[in-house]
TrEMBL record:
4-aspartylphosphate: residues bearing it: D63
Protein name: LytTR family DNA-binding domain-containing protein
Species per Swiss-Prot/TrEMBL record: Streptomyces yangpuensis
SUPFAM superfamilies on file: CheY-like
Keyword line: DNA-binding, Phosphoprotein
Length: 274
């Protein structure tokens, strides 16, 4: 079972996070810290006592925006230890996901925190620590009678991203919206996430770019670079300049990798004459 430290400089949010963590049967203990200094002092004591010591910490649930050191600063400092605790970022800001996963974060949970989303973060931490099966039997759901067919519950975020053939679910601050795939001009890889760019703005989803490439090939999306997937019909211009190929998609200019350039030119020609 997990020993957890939750760090947030907003007391009501910290108390809510601790309440949710303590309600999870996989969490043995959950303590709180309201600033970076307290958090570092607590983690240092845990590291000094060893992984099996009385002050041990397995996972730090860490806010990003705090007075003084940010959560990212704390994570960078912890990364310098030989056996640091796992990190789960809990934040109201979606724009730091790439930095978070560069720091080997287990998960990135957006506020306001939903209990089922936090439970998924706990599951991932347990799995990474090799404790995925340490859930008490009492926590298992009751058996379904043979005459009843239970509707499957979708896993949070990435497991069932589409609603019907034409939409994808995106989440911001605990609110789920459905974006028409036809409105997406291009997709940008950001670590384990993908950022969907539309005319109105952008949305972050926890789906790898390679997965979207496979799912949306029939909808006219093509890979032009290891970082970009583009809707063919939204390309306004293809330019070759000094050996570098780029495309303009609205106001965005995106580089085309050499291995994709010829295929893209052929596709655009067929699309234009088709």
């Amino acid at each position: 079972m997990l020993r957890v430290l939750a760090v947030d400089d907003e007391k009501p949010l910290l108390e809510e996070l601790l309440y949710l963590l303590r309600s999870d049967p996989r969490v043995h203990s959950a303590e709180g810290a309201s600033d970076a200094t307290e958090a570092l002092r607590r983690v240092t004591r845990a590291l000094e006592s060893g992984p099996d010591g009385p002050d041990g910490i397995d996972v730090v649930f860490l806010d990003i925006h705090m007075a003084g050191l940010t959560g990212l600063d704390i994570a960078r400092l912890l990364a310098g230890f030989a056996r640091p605790p796992l990190i789960v970022f809990v934040t109201a800001h979606e724009g730091f996901a790439v930095q978070a996963f560069d720091l080997k974060a287990v998960d990135y949970v957006l506020k306001p925190v939903r209990p089922e989303r936090l439970a998924e973060a706990v599951r991932r931490a347990c799995a990474q620590l090799g404790r995925a099966e340490e859930v008490p039997v009492a926590a298992a759901p009751p058996a379904v009678p043979p005459a009843v067919v239970a509707a499957p519950r979708p896993a949070p975020e990435a497991a069932v991203p589409d609603r019907g053939p034409e939409q994808i679910a995106v989440e911001l601050g605990g609110v789920t919206r459905f974006v028409a795939i036809a409105d997406i001009a291009y997709v940008e890889a950001q670590g384990d996430y993908a950022r969907l760019h539309t005319d109105e703005g952008s949305h972050l989803v926890r789906i790898p770019l390679s997965t979207l490439e496979e799912r949306w090939a029939a909808r006219g999306f093509v890979r032009i670079h290891r970082r970009h997937l583009v809707a063919l019909a939204r390309i306004d211009e293809l330019r070759l300049d000094s050996g570098t190929t780029t495309v303009r998609v609205g106001s965005a200019v995106l580089q085309v990798s050499r291995r994709h350039a010829r295929e893209l030119r052929d596709l655009l020609m067929r699309h234009a004459t088709g």
